[in-house]
Specification:
By secondary structure, the chain is mainly beta. Helix content is 0%, strand content 45%. The chain has no helices and 10 strands.
């Protein structure tokens, strides 16, 4: 289980490909909402054999929700020789600590809006690129 409320929490993903020089992509998907977060980085030829990506707990622009997740890590050869290699897995993000004005449980404040037809909507008020407030 991953606790995103821990101080400076980053979720490490690492992989040791059989040859260096790849574009490595990590895709994290919240099972219930299908919201995704994606990280990409180049592994340089001659670099360390272990490749590491640290997920900061964001899905697109907003903090991750608690619950079940699947992840896919793909390595595409930089030289174009050979197929991409993929590894998959799953994890669970622990429930987030309650925060003021956080109605969807992702640790970030939310705003309600009502349409002219009377429909109520919930909007995440997170600032892109910024971590949620920590108590």
């Amino acid at each position: 289980m991953v606790d995103l409320d821990a101080a400076d929490e980053k979720v490490p993903f690492s992989w040791t490909p059989d040859r260096p020089g790849a574009l490595v992509t990590l895709k994290v998907v919240h099972t219930a909402s299908r919201a995704t977060g994606t990280l990409r980085a180049w592994q340089e030829p001659g670099g360390p054999s272990e490749f590491r990506l640290d997920w900061d707990g964001f899905l697109s622009k907003f903090p991750a929700y608690a619950g079940a997740y699947t992840w896919t890590m793909t390595a595409e050869p930089r030289n174009g020789i050979g197929p991409a290699v993929e590894r998959t897995g799953s994890s669970v993000v622990a429930p987030r600590a309650p925060r003021r004005h956080d109605f969807d449980g992702n640790g970030s404040p939310d705003v309600f809006g009502r349409s002219s037809a009377g429909f109520l909507s919930l909007y995440a008020a997170a600032v892109p690129g910024r971590r949620p407030h920590r108590a």
